[in-house]
Each structure stands twice: as C-alpha cells, then as structure tokens.
Amino acid sequence: MAKKKPLVYVTRKIPTEALARLHQRCEVLLWGEELPPPREQLLRDIADADGLLCLLTDTIDETVLKAAPKLRVISNMAVGYDNIDVAAATKRGIPVGNTPDVLTETSADFAFALLMAAARRIPEGERYVKDGHWRTWSPMLLMGQDIYGATLGIVGLGRIGQAVARRARGFDMRILYHGGSDVEAAAALGAQQVDLETLLQESDFVSLHVPLTQETRGLIGAQELRLMKPTAILINTARGPVVDTTALYEALKNGEIAAAGLDVTDPEPLPADHPLLQLENCLVTPHIASSSQATRARMAHMAVNNVIAGLRGEPLPYCVNPAVYPDKP
Fold it and tell me: Of these residues, 239, 296, 298, 301, which one is catalytic?
C-alpha cells in the first residue's frame, strides 16, 4: 500500500514549476483565488495540513496554529515574516521559513525606478498626454527634481539598502545612511553614517529599507516629515506602517515635502477613495517591488524547498526560528 502523501495548504497561486514540484511530493490544497483566503476559510482548510505555504497577506497567528494540530512546517514566500507569530510556532516546534536574499537586486531596481518616476513626474506626464492636454512644448511643463548629484538618504543600509546605494553611485549621488551594521560595506559605497535627524534634514531623497518592528513602526511621522526639505521626496518600499499615513498625507497636501513614491501602504491595500490617491504628488504602486518573473520563480522554489525539508524532518534551508533545532550547531 502506497504511503499517504503529506497535505500542504498553499494560500495562493504560485509559479507553475515550483507548484509542480510540490505536487510530485505532496497532496496540495491550493486556494486559487486572486484574493487571500478569508479567515474562516483559512481555518477550515488548514485543519488537516502537514505543511503551509503562505504569503505576507496571510495572518498566521495563535488561532490559526491551534486550528492546524498536524502542522509541521510553515514557509512564507517572502523575505519578511511579520505576518506570522513566530514565537507561537516555535513553542509548538514548528519551523518557519522565508525566502531571503533572492529579491535584493530586483527590489533595489524598483525602489530606484520609483525614485526616478516620482522625481521626474513620469506618471503625471503620462496622464497629461493620455488625457489630451498636450498641445505644445512648454519650458515650464511638469518640472521635476534632478537626481544626478543629489543627496540620497537611506534608512536601513541592509542588503537592499546597499543595492540601492550602488545604483545611486551611478548617478554620482551623495549617500547618507542611518541604520545598518556593515561599516565596511558602507565605506566601500562611499556612504556616510549620520543620525536620522541629519539624514532627513540634508537629503533630497529619503528611501526606507527597514523591517517592520516595534521600533520602526511609525518611524516617519509628522515630526520627521517636518525635518525634510520642501523639495524632498520620500520613497517607501519597506513596510507601510513604517510611515504615519495621515502625517504623510498632510505633509504632501501642505507642501512640506515635494512628493512620495510608495510601494507599500498602511492600510494595505489603500481603499480606492483614500485621500493619498487623490494627490498628484503621491505615486502608489501595489506592493510589486520584487515582482519580476525570474525573482518570483526563485522565491517560489525557495518556499517549496522549505516545505519539502520540513516535511522530511530536515532543517529548513532558510529558517527564521532555528531554536526549533536545539541539537543543531
């Protein structure tokens, strides 16, 4: 009699090749809708699951873990994992995996693209043309901010922050940073470490690259925005709650800063009638910084590798709670 395959619940469609690998080794229950599974659906579907492959949009808390008594592994297809109660999973001996490093360059590309689009008012220009307003060339039309030679302040000089800094060097930008422990990498990039106040006061562009923690929640609020130049542009591809949304709206509306480019928001997604979406100087994209075909495929394979290892009783290749392996060095 053939051994029964373990059941893995996958909370959304993932790239085909990675999903096929999972099907070869496991029984797969896939939530195939565009939106995340509703809470009650998640609790029902996970009841008999041995493994869980989830996304940032899925809240995996104590209640979910209680609903899944057979669960042996959780794999988050993301670098971050603030959607998972890791402490609760660790208490149950459940390893939690993520997909680190793979999206560094792709995310940095997008952060810099967002910076450039906001600085040079590219979305406004496109709308201007498509709405039929372009009648002639004008020397004062949609004047933006220069990037070349400007000062870039990076909050969080980790892997993605460093990758953004490498791109900034190609534009001969002065680079300031706050947060980040790799002093040698910073020196190689020509980046100068300063306190947050100095960074905000001196930067023409401020790009956020910090994880969401108790310390970083609301890191950029009304007081911090008032420190920035009225010509400055804020870029957030980190986590939405790092920025106080209400304070940002007021700063943009009142001209305290020139513009913002946001790939993450709070709340996320923003309601269609949210005030931020009514502002011409606020560019918002739907959390797609790492969304290239190659990167998404690599992330999916890494997430599947975590699931397969966990179901085999092996250490996860990318484990965020190694305390579940007390005997491992």
Answer: 239
Q: Which tens digit of pLDDT belongs to each residue from 46-102?
A: 999 999 999 999 999 999 999 999 999 999 999 889 999 999 999 999 999 999 989
In this structure, are residues 8 and 52 in contact, taking their beta carbons and an 8 Å threshold? yes
Reported as a single tens digit per residue, the pLDDT across 110-135 is 999 999 999 999 999 999 999 999 99
239 is catalytic: yes
166 a catalytic residue:
no
| Whether residue 229 sits in one domain with residue 195 | yes
Domain of 43 in residue numbering reads as: 7-101+293-324
Residue 235: CATH number of its domain = 3.40.50.720
Prior bond to 317 cis, omega within 30? no
Among residues 25, 250, 268, 274, the one annotated as catalytic is 268
Catalytic (active site) residue 287: yes
Of 12, 121, 287, 301, the catalytic one is 287
Tell me the three state secondary structure of residue 234.
strand
CB 254 within 8 A of CB 225: no
